[in-house]
């Protein structure tokens, strides 16, 4: 994984944040479908989480222990929210199993974050 990976995560977080706000506006003004509101909530939540994970990846030099799960979270959010948004805006999604796959990746990614934090805690010597 590149040393620029935390910056890539922050860029993805910024995009997810912007799209999440736009989706919230569209859910409020243009579409009457709760799926778009759900996609907005997921994007905004995971945007903040990815920004925090990017900081942790850099602070702990944890490209694999936290970076790999963060990448799964980024991909999972894209698939889950993208599928919901396409279903609302276009009426269908070209990938019928994108939402469940995305949700599964989110779950695995978050479990990976938990496991990665435990690994880092066990490897890091206690201070003061």
From TrEMBL:
The chain crosses the membrane at residues 36-57, 64-85, 97-122. Pfam families: DUF423. InterPro entries: DUF423. Keywords: Membrane, Transmembrane, Transmembrane helix. It comes from Methylopila henanensis. It comes from the Bacteria. This is DUF423 domain-containing protein.
